[in-house]
Amino acid sequence: MSIDLATHYGGLTLRTPIVVGACPLSTDDHMRTRLQAAGAGAIVLPSVFEEQVIDWTQKMGRPITYREKALLARSERLKIRSACSDANSYLALLKRASSQLDIPVIASMNGYAANGWLDYAGELQEADAAAIELNVHHPPVDEHSGSGEIEESIVAAIEEIDQAISIPLFVKIERVGVSLPHLARRVCSGASGFVLYGRGPDTDICLDNLKLKSTWSLTSPGSAIQLVDPIMRVHSHCPAMSIAASGGIASSDDVIKVLLAGADVAMVTSELYRSGPEVIGKLIDGLIEFLKRHQFNSINDLQLNRPIEFADEESRVHYVAALSAKLNVVRSNAVGD
């Protein structure tokens, strides 16, 4: 039985639902080739940070705000490390990766606000990004009066950047302080998808100098279960919004569960560091075995059998209509290819 693993993620049609999440591994040319050969449907490059974009904006002769000057000064003091030394180097990496691979390469921007990102978002599109992943953080609490104001700032950022590009925009946001299902409805016309992730960095205190330190560690295998509930809530409330599950994807069971919950793709990162690119093939093999066991011929068959609860029959009708619209896009894109 032939299994069709193609999936629709926002405006992209991917050959498999396994996406390499943003991480420094993808800065290496040889590693990207191995990730594609292993079966990845797309690759997200590591982030270019807001501070780097502000510096790029300033060097282009454009004015920057007082807040941006303060952020730039802060980054100089902290010596924030990133995969690329500056915004121009990031554009070169993106251009090289896009020309090297046959699968979509997604650029990633990381920061607090939309100011200064608009021109650079256009540059990312010009450098052949298939899409942009916007990793937007909440500003400090004292800059907002409540969760509603936080949501307004996120909505404004999405609207501004979406107007500056014609490629898909995926939004990766913190789950704390906002109502994800409600936000999904509000930004559905501007954002092509949500990236729902399980956790943030660990915050520690250095006892030698009494300063704060944020560190990332590999996500523990099995922790993807934490994603199931938020994915189901967003998907059932706004089925038109594509979803990527990110955080703790380490086995084919993890992939299957997040897809059944409502995700269109599963992003793998930590497991790549533990097991190498070949783990992607193992995730795909396990997914295929599951589809065969349940007599599903495609990812679309799996999606139609998701265990979603509905408040009434009208909700189910709207849900099926949204899935059908997604399926029609996948089919039209396949014909166009």
Brief overview, please?
This protein is α/β, with parallel strands linked by helices. The protein has one domain: Aldolase class I (TIM Barrel, Alpha-Beta Barrel). The protein is 47% helix and 17% strand.
Describe the fold and architecture.
The chain is of the alpha/beta class and 337 residues long. It has a single domain (7-336), classed as TIM Barrel. It has 13 helices and 13 strands. The longest helix has 24 residues, at 313-336. This is Dihydroorotate dehydrogenase 2. One of its GO terms (biological process) is 'de novo' UMP biosynthetic process.
Topology:
Blueprint: E1 7-9, E2 12-14, E3 18-20, H1 29-38, E4 42-44, E5 48-49, H2 50-59, H3 66-78, H4 87-100, E6 105-111, H5 117-126, E7 131-136, H6 147-164, E8 169-173, H7 180-187, E9 193-197, E10 202-206, E11 211-215, H8 225-237, E12 242-246, H9 252-261, E13 265-268, H10 270-275, H11 279-293, H12 299-304, H13 313-336
Parallel strand pairs: 3-4, 3-13, 4-6, 5-6, 6-7, 7-8, 8-9, 9-12, 12-13
Antiparallel strand pairs: 1-2, 10-11
Helix pairs in contact: 2-3, 7-8, 8-9, 9-11
